[in-house]
Amino acid sequence: MGVSRPFCKSILLSSIYPSTAASLRFPSSLRRGSFFMASLSSKNDSSSSSSECKNPQSDTPSPSSAIDFLSLCHRLKITKRTGWVRRGIENPESISDHMYRMGIMALITADIPGVNRDRCIKLAIVHDIAEGGISHAFDAIVGDIAPSDGIPKAEKSRREREALEHMCKLLGGGPRAEELSELWMEYEENLTLEAKLVKDFDKIEMILQALEYESGKFQTDVGKAWAAEIISRRRQRKVGSAE
Q: For residue 207, with 0-12 CB atoms within 10 Å meaning exposed, 13-18 middle and 19 or more buried, which class applies?
């Protein structure tokens, strides 16, 4: 059925000036169509408004949660590794220093079948992260718990889990906090090939750091000679075990 130009003009005017709609006369079929379109438009507006009002949990933490979490992570930068402190090393590395070089190790290592290198990088930068929370949750102890502290492994793990839980809550929960917790647990329980490789990196980084302290700490010929002897014996031991 054709629609005359006046009717089309009337419809256009009613859409621009709703107040004029009441004074216009339309065929019943057009009135029903107009009401249907108006109803549909109203539903769409309502649906749009409803979706805008929803506040689903974001995949990322809020700016406030992120900064609170990162501020706590600052402890990792200023907390020195306990083992080196106990051995009298001047200005020893921090927990963060240790984790950073482990992350670089994971980045540059060769591709290994069945090993996800990107996940190794994540594990490296997360594996000691709870030590930043320990010094917050347990003010009486140092964040980096060394074997010489005499704290049983189960108790050390319990404290780290509690500290990690605090840090995840600080992050606001959600997918990022869950990933952080899963990565830490994977490393702690040595569950995967990636975890095993990163645990090796943990030991290698410590040995490398010790070697750097050994070569740079001694200021006298006697000290340097004795250090060289120790390094020589270590090498001989490695050759013997390899044979």
A: exposed
With a CB cutoff of 8 Å and minimum separation 6, the contacts of 127 are: 99, 102, 183, 184, 187, 188, 198, 202
- Please report the DSSP string for 173-238 in residue order: SHHHHHHHHHHHHHHHTT-SHHHHHHHHHHHHHHHHHHHHHHHHH--SHHHHHHHHHHHHHHHHHH
Q: Which of 177, 153, 174, 179 shows the shortest CA–CA distance to 165?
A: 177
In 3D space, the residue among 238, 153, 151, 148 whose CA is nearest the CA of residue 190 turns out to be: 153
Amino acid at the residue 42? S
Does the predicted model carry a pTM greater than 0.85?
no
Q: What number of CA atoms fall less than 13 Å from residue 48's CA on the CB side?
A: 6
* DSSP letter (8 states) at residue 87: T
How far, in Å, CA of 178 to CA of 197, rounded? Answer: 22
Give the integer Cα–Cα distance in Å for 231 and 243.
19
Give residue-wise pLDDT tens across range 180-231.
999 999 999 998 999 999 999 999 999 888 888 877 667 777 877 887 787 7
CA distance 156 to 148: 12
Residue ranges of the chain with pLDDT lower than 50?
3, 7-56, 137-143
201 contacts 106 by C-beta, under 8 angstroms: yes
Note the Cα 144 to chain centre separation in Å: 20
